[in-house]
Predict the 3D structure of the following.
Amino acid sequence: MEHYNMNLTLKVWRQKNTDAQGKFETYPVSGISSEMSFLEMFDVLNEKLINEGKEPIAFDHDCREGICGACSMHINGRAHGPWAGTTTCQLHMRAFKDGDTVTVEPWRAGSFPVVKDLTVDRSAFDRIIEAGGYVSVNTGNAQDANSILVPKDQSDEAFAAAACIGCGACVAACKNSSAMLFVSAKVSQLALLPQGQPERKSRALNMIAQMDKEMFGSCTNTGACEAECPKEISLTNIARLNREFISAGFTYEK
Amino acid sequence: MKWSQFFNTSIGKKLLVGATGLFLCSFIIVHLAGNFQLLYNDGGKAFNTYAAFMGHNELIQLIAWGLKIAILLHAFIALQLTFRNRAARPVKYAVNPGNQTSSWFSRQMAIMGSILLIFIVIHLANFWWKFHFGEIPTQNYGGEEPLKDLYTVVQVAFKELWIVVLYVIGMIALSFHLIHGFKSAFQTFGLNHVKYNGLISFVGVWLFGILIPVGFAIIPVVIYFK
């Protein structure tokens, strides 16, 4: 792809802290290379703001390799921008044209309060995991490899679900701010494997109870989460979560 | 988890919405089959005989009350979930993706459902209430007792333009509601399988989303222009 430079107008959400009233600020940026990532473009802008003695824009990032799930940016109405299956760091500026106006907002959900500017607090996800997204393993010698047989198809499916990076794009993209795609991936990766069986029923019940407690919305099967997920987690996981929850609810004795 | 807790979770509530929704889907097939008798030019004999049977058979009456409970339950829980879902995003986005990430129909369930609920209330007042509790003319088709002439009540009602328009709007709402609603219920029950998804989607869109609402809507239109 041919390299080009562009000038953009950025409309960025600025918010001092969780309790402060936020608002959009407009920033012109010039000489942006089409080879830059979206976050590098923000680095350029922040450098300029710092040189001008202004407060840089706070945004979350860690690996910049598309696997940490920290970059919670809603770009022109799309979670992680216009490209499918990408995080913000993997979104490159060639997705935009010279003269474009780009609106950048943080994830909007009551369960993900804004910490500052484009940084949100996704610890609600951690608390859902704490409620049951794990397997209990007794310490001792490591087992022989392959002593537990797992069908290949099933391990592939579990692996696809385990690709979830907990970035929260599903919540951000959902009109109900539902966390069902996230919870379904976390329940699925364990429900599909032998190691997940002992806590299978309590896991589904407890994680959904925590999800509701965190005040995420409920799923109306619009499919927006699947369309925006950077790891392309499938809606079939939500169906599996429903099955897990229903069968646990109907049969679990506690 | 106790039953009371189970049906108070978001998924538990959605199960009730889906189950009542599919029950109501099964009902509209029967309702439409009966309605087509309104198009007969037999002075209402077939339709009034059918209406008398439906109005007096105990089993049918039991199901009819079940339907009314299902409608109320479906609407009440769905609205409760909708308000909760709205509250889950206190600050809205300045830019929304529109149809890029989800179908328009899937985002209008609450609006279409509310239009349908209003329609159902007017519809019951127009015909069900009149049939059971109102003064309506009778017709004798040679049976032992004269039958209530609901056929004529319907024919008269559908000569009014505003009622015809209202019914067509109600059926557009039904169509849009079921294009997403039917298949969505299956996903909520956890029934998502490559071998059946195509069939479920086809039945949801073509039978419940298009054929049945069109079938309902043509009856008032035909009577109006007759």
User: Anything to note?
Assistant: The beta strands of chain B are 138-139, 147-148. Chain B is about 75% helix and 0% strand. The mean pLDDT of chain B is 95.
